[in-house]
Each structure stands twice: as C-alpha cells, then as structure tokens.
What does this fold into?
Amino acid sequence: MTPLRVTIIGAGISGLSCAHRLLELSQEKQAPLELTILDASPKVGGNLSTLEQDGFLMEEGPDCFITEKPAALNLIKRLDMEWQLMRTNHELKQSFILKGNNLYPIPEGFYLMAPSKLGPLMTTPLLSVWGKLRAALEPWVPIRRDPQDESVGAFVRRRLGKNVLEALAQPLLGGVYNADPDDLSLNAAMPRFKEMELKYGSLIKAMVARRLNSQAQVSGARYSLFMTLQKGMQSLTDALLYKIPVRSLQLESPVSSIRFEKEWTIRSNGRDQQADALVLALQPAKMIPLLSPLDKEWEKLLSGIPAHDSATLNLGFRREDIGHPLDGFGFVVPAREKKLVLGCTFSSQKFLGRAPLGMVLMRAFLGADSVRKIKEEGEQAVIDEVLAELQPILKLKGEPVTRHLAVYHQAMSYFRPGHLSQASRLEQKASEQKGLYLAGNGLKGVGIPDCIAVGEAVAEKIFRDFKAESANV
It folds into this structure.
C-alpha cells in the first residue's frame, strides 16, 4: 500500500499533537504513513519551554493548562503521563489585583468577568460605591438578542458596568489573551458568558447556578481547574517528540514557498519535497507569505487575526528579601495602572518544586510596550524598570539571585469581533484546496487544550479525506 505523505509546518504543540494523532491513526488503521515535520527553530515545542537555572524550574511560556477543556488531559493520559500531573498548591486559595501599589484579593466567586457571589463584590475595595451599585443591578439589565458579535468590553460594560470592566474583568482577561477587551470577540473568546445571558437573563443568576451545580457534583475524577506537569510544561512536548520518528523531524528548516499541482511541493533550505497533505501549524501572520501567492484572499483573511508581542521575566529571590507574605498565586494589573508589568505569578507558591529551599520564584508578564522598549533600550533597561515597579508592591529588599527573560514575537493570537465567521471562511477556503489543512492558536482558541484539539482534529480529517478519496478511485 502506498504511504500517505503528510508534511506539517510548525513543531509547536499544535503541530506535534497533529503528528502524534496521525501516528496513532496510522497504527490503528494499519495505514502506512510518511510523516515530515518542518520548523525554522532549532528546538520543538514553540513557546512551551521549561528551563532549569540555578536550581529554579522556570517556564518561559505557559505554566499550566485548564482542565475544563479535555484535550490536554486526554493526551496526557494516552502518553501515560497522568502520574506527572500536579495541582495548584491547595493551601493557597486566592490571587490579587493591583490598585496603586497595594494588592487586593480578587473577590471570592468572581470568575474572569462575572460574580457568583454578591457579598464579596459589594465589599471589595477594588470597586467604587457606584461601581458596586451598578453591578448589583445586573439581573435587571435587558438581554441583548442581536446575533451580531459583540466585544467582550462592550458586553461587560453593558451588563456589569464600566467599573467592573476596568477594575476586574480587563486585568483578568488580559492575563489570558493579552488583548484589549474592546477589541476581543465575545463569541470567539468567551461564548459561555453570552450563553449565560441568553439562558438565565443574568450573569449573576447563571454563575450562582453554576456554583451550586459544581458543589452538587461529587462523583468522577476530581481535578483542579489548573494543572501542570512535575518537571514543567515542556515535558509534554518532550513526550510527544519521543513518539515521533527521528527521520520525520527537520529543525532549522524554514519553509520559503509552497505550491500545488497534483501534489504539494514544499521548498525548505533550497530543497523541494513532496506531500499529499500539508498542515500549516503556524501563526496566521506566518501563513501569509506561504499562502498569499496561491490566492490573494488568504492575505486578507489571515491579516485579520492579530497577535501581540509579549515576554516573560523569571526572577529568583531569597525569601527574606521579599516583604510581602505571598499568600496567593500572584496578581494581575489593570491597564489604568499604566505599568510595564501586566501580571506576576508567584511560581513557587503556585506549584511545588519550582525553587530551592529558602528561595522564591516569580514570573512577570510583559506586553508589546515592553518588547518595544527592549528593542529600543535593551533588556537591562526593561528588567530594571520591572524591578522598580515590583519593589513597592512586594516590598523587595534585595536584588534577584537569578533572572531569565524570554521574548516572543507575535506568538499568541487574539480574536477580534467577527472572528468566528472569519475562521469559518478560512476553514472553507482550506477545504477548497486539496490536501491543505490549517492548525495553530489563531483559529479556535489560544490555550494548550485548544491547540491540542485543533491539531488532533486536523489529523483525523486528513485520514477521513484520504480514505474517502481512495474509496472513490
């Protein structure tokens, strides 16, 4: 039987998940597969990268994944890695939001952009008196039934008021999407909250029902909302890499062009190779130079899915050099505070085994302004400014004993209003071109489970498509 030739461009979590599922399906169906993975980088994993430095375990990219979406957990189980799963520190139950130079707990029961308890919302110093009153009126706000997409910012402002948006929802959502809520699609990024409005007529009523329902569920596996792996998230991509034949992987192999006649021809490092199926597991911006020569509509569609530059700064301190009790997982920073730091995770508080005894590891999140400043003034200037911002907040008394800065250029997409129709057209357009498939975090979600789900779905579609084609021959 002639092998099915599949080339994947991009060895991040989406591309590796696609490759792994292809190999699983090839074995299950006893269908020969000729797999090639091309990546311009010298290492696999994209921004899933873990570093051991001076006794600290540092995450350069995501430090955990959400368990409500099952794709990551299911993959970890299939890789026999379930024993490596690690929950967040059960002794800590809170995170904070910055106001001035003070950290205040996120009101108990507040999830991303809606409360399940009114009491904590009415007593938090993060909101003004008028902001609290406006939020309390949410159950009486009329339902918006217009099917046209709405921005997350407009939605929160309409239902809970401007104060809740600026003081609570914006910094919490910024920690997930690194995007302005007024430029973020509700239907694509937070569809559950729109469903709550339509079903219950109120976010508060819906969140209360959700809390009561979760308390009533006592059977089945109990996972915390966020989990990681004992040796860091790179363990996942390392395990996937172990399953992939060495001959299939070509690193430091940027793709300069693709073309299709009766098959795909992919040019990399001055050499052509052929494939029956081609998977682009890339950021939309990186797909443009490859796809726009085929059809100019590609550029129009893909350029509408933006991605910001970002950076993470890991900092190791002696515990005695930090005056703050660090009695939570970290904090986020509202945009109105005008800081370089968008948020800061107390990494060694959140997950055990991240710092040596007597030490603390924390990780600051930086946005596009910081990356621009790094280009203009250098890394040290940004590190110095970050430390100056953290000093009064965390009562720092000394310099970090170690530090590590990782910079990412357009690494994580965000979804503007109207994204779902745009993504649907992209999928339709790909299906019109024989053997072309799109994956990555620019289509259906930016989290690790989303990327895994997209990669695996593409692998399954490839096998369905080519099985149907062979049946019609």
Notes: Residues 307-413 form a domain with the Polyamine Oxidase; Chain A, domain 2 fold (CATH 3.90.660.20). The longest strand covers residues 307-318. The chain has three domains: 4-46+232-305+416-472, 105-216, 307-413. Confidence is low (pLDDT under 50) at residues 216-223.
